[in-house]
Structures are given as C-alpha cells and as structure tokens.
Amino acid sequence: MTRYKITAPQRLNASVSLPASKSISNRALIIYALSGGHLLPHNLSDCDDTEVILDALRYMPGEIDIKAAGTAMRFMTAYLSVMRGTHVITGTERMKHRPIGILVDALRELGADIKYAGEEGFPPLRITGRQLKGGTLEIEGNVSSQYISALLMIGPVLEEGLELRLKGDIISKPYIDLTLWMMREFGADADWTGGDTISVRPQPYKNREYFIENDWSGASYWYEMVALKGGRDTEVKLTGLMDGSKQGDSVVRYLFSLLGVKTMFESKEMNKPQTVTLKANGRCVPKLEYDFVNSPDLAQTVVAACAAKGVRFHFKGLATLKIKETDRIEALKREMRKLGYVLEDRNDSELIWDGERCEPNLAGGIDTYEDHRMALSLAPLALKHNGLIINNPQVVTKSYPHFWKALQEAGFEISEE
Asked: Is the pLDDT of residue 32 over 80?
C-alpha cells in the first residue's frame, strides 16, 4: 500500500493550474459523439473518469470497462442505447454494487434493449443499441442527476424527442441545468417547460469547437487550504475559472466566504476563463448550516474545513453520499474521528458536529476507500495536523491527477512512507 506523508509549508502563496472540469468534459464528449462530428473539445480533462469515456468512444470495444467512473457508467449506458451494435459495459467490484436500475428502467420504457449481465439492478449491462422513439417519461426527481442528464443528452436523437417529468423533490438541479446549457451550446432545443418538466425536441446537435472551463470542484480544496492557513500573507491564484460558471460547485465561493476566504476575479467578464485570487480575511461564522442537495461533491471539503476551524455545523441533503465511490457519510465519520472530531449522522442524509472532540489516532494514516474526494478533501488538514499520512493517495487520478504535484509546487513536502 502506498502512503504519502504531507508536511505543510510555513507560508502559503501559490499559483495553481487547475484541472479542466470533469463534469463539463464528460458531457461534452457524449454530445460530441452524438453530433457525429470529429472535433474534440479544447482543454479536455485528463482525469480517469474522462479518459474512460474518451477511450470507449474512440475504440467502442465489445466490452467497455469504465472502472470506477460512475458518471461514465450512466452516460455511456444511455449513449450505447441509441448507437448501433451490442456492447457489455462493466466496471470495478464497487461499480458492480452501485445501483443503475432506475436508469435502465427509464431507457427500457423508451424502447432500449438492455439486459443485466450479472445481478439484477446493477452493472454489468449488455446493451444492443437502436433508434429509439422517445416521447414522455416520468422519473423521480430525487435520484442521481446523472441519470437525468444521461436521458436528456440522448433526447435530440430520439424520433419524437423527450419530455421528462420529474416527480417529487428535485436534487442536484445545477447539474441538470449544466447539462441543458451545454446541450443548447451544441444546437439542441432543450429547456424547462414547467417547474418539474423538461422538453427536448428532436433537433440534431451541431458539432462545433468548444473550450472547457477549469474545475470549481478542484478549486474547493484550495479554498479549504486558504481557510485553514489563514493570515494576511496567505494567497492562492487559480487559473481558468469563470465568474458566470454553470458548474454547480461554483457555490464554493459563497460557502468559503463564510469561512474566511475572499474571492477576487481579475476582470468583470462573466463568461471568460480568468485567474481568481483567494485571500484569507479572518472573518468566520461560529456555526454553519447548509443543505448540500445541489452540491453534494463539496460536502467532504466543507466538513473537513469546518471541523478543523472549530466551526460547528449541521449539513443536510447528503443522501447521495451513501452511493458514491464509497459510503461517504460513514467514511467521513471514521476518518474525522481519527483526527479527533466526533461527527453524528441522521436519517442517512445529515451530518452534524457540535464541537465534540476525542483523542486523535493518526498512527495508521487516513484511509481513502478508493474515493478520490476522501483524499482530496482531507489532505489539506496537514495544515492543522502536520505530517498527516494519506493511504492509497493515487485515487486522486479519478478527478485531479496532478493534485500531489500541485501541492508540492505550493510548498508542501510529500514523502512516500
């Protein structure tokens, strides 16, 4: 097992080249493929999740192994349903236990030929693609937004388009809005036509050049570092972010403004990639309550930052964390206890910290559970627990392949134990 020991710098002043947005890259690749063009987006992410989609689309083998990439499993399942040919799509052992029945049932209702090649309701899947008629479809709004995005992106190539009605509460809505915005960028006629209904007309995509913004999720770990380090001379510059970003995780600006971080854009242009400067301002709330229903991927980062700064919290909207790369709620409780913070969970969707502490026990290091965000969100805690050890640190390649190199360039010392 690989283990990294992280020693924090005395001073944090860095310029960071962020990775390209994984969320935008993965959607762009599917839309590019559906448009039938040969152009590829500029500034495409080089993370594992994007690479598996790119390889699958480039080679289209009989068996497609998407490894641990949940986004790829969902997007490619819908894509293969409308493309001629038969393929088996599979992944890691953890992927074979991540549910996909809701998406499969929805695609079957549209006429897709999908069979389970293993356990009912889970990958692997055997998919024989064909022209689908489309029409009206109902799906629960509180399922993974990736199911909804997967269905929406194939809407323009369905004979009758798609009218998608979302029942009940709608979660992760910014990710749905991001999908619709990108679809329109490529010529689709797709939008909300009511509070719970999305209509996609059968209007083909247009292949075009496209530049991908850098990743606000990746930016969140640097926000955490600035918040934890504090001090007037602490400053981090982040490249390639947009003030008017459609990425749901751009809400990190607001969250960390409550935890002592000021965000400054180099210009007032809303939709142009630019450099963002983060500075510590010393102002921090004593307690934070927030519903992460629209931005669950930020939860681990904010949990770690709050606890390390002594900010009590009550976070809701975390139900989807149970079915990510690991059960993130349980993983956070275990690893934060090692660091001396006792978290409580409620209703499989809430995390609470009322300030309770315990004796830290870091001898065995921080476990990452094959989950990139466990490593990415807890590594900055080396600023408070110097010499912190991260087990299996290579998991970061799923979304931020150059994270450890970026830390070193920012002055952190990283040694293999």
From this structure: yes
| Catalytic pick among 49, 215, 249, 297 | 297
DSSP assignment letter at 34: H
Tell me how far apart the alpha carbons of residues 228 and 305 are, in angstroms, rounded to a whole number.
7
What integer pLDDT is reported at residue 268 of this predicted model? 83
CA distance 370 to 72: 17
**Scanning the structure block, which residue is given the tokens 């290579």?**
394
**Amino acid of residue 274:** Q
Rounded Cα distance between 178 and 131, Å, is 26
Write the single-letter amino acid at 47. C
323 and 99 Cβ atoms separated by less than 8 Å: yes
Mean pLDDT, the chain, as a whole number?
95
| Residue of 379, 258, 273, 371 whose CA lies nearest to 322 | 371
Q: Which two tokens stand for residue 252?
A: 């990190």
The Cα–Cα gap between 392 and 286 comes to 34
Taking the CA of residue 364 as centre, how many other CA atoms within 13 Å lie in the half-sphere pointing to its CB? 7
pTM, two decimal places = 0.91
Specify the amino acid at residue 266: E
The type of residue at 179 is T
Q: Active site includes 249?
A: no
Which percentage of the chain shows pLDDT scores above 90? Answer: 89
CB 300 within 8 A of CB 328: yes
- Residue 9: asked if its preceding bond is cis (omega within 30°), the reply is no
Residue 184: closest CA among 163, 210, 164: 210
Does residue 137 or residue 37 have the better pLDDT?
137
Lowest pLDDT segment from 76-80, 168-172, 247-251, 328-332? 168-172
C-alpha closest to that of 168 among 194, 137, 142, 195: 142
Report yes or no: 237 and 229 within 8 Å, Cβ to Cβ: no
- What are the tens digits of pLDDT across the range 318-376? 998 887 788 999 999 999 999 999 999 999 999 999 999 999 999 999 999 999 999 99
How many angstroms separate the CA atoms of 71 and 73, rounded?
5
For residue 231, give every residue at least 6 positions away whose Cβ sits within 8 Å of its Cβ, in sequence order, or none. Answer: 280
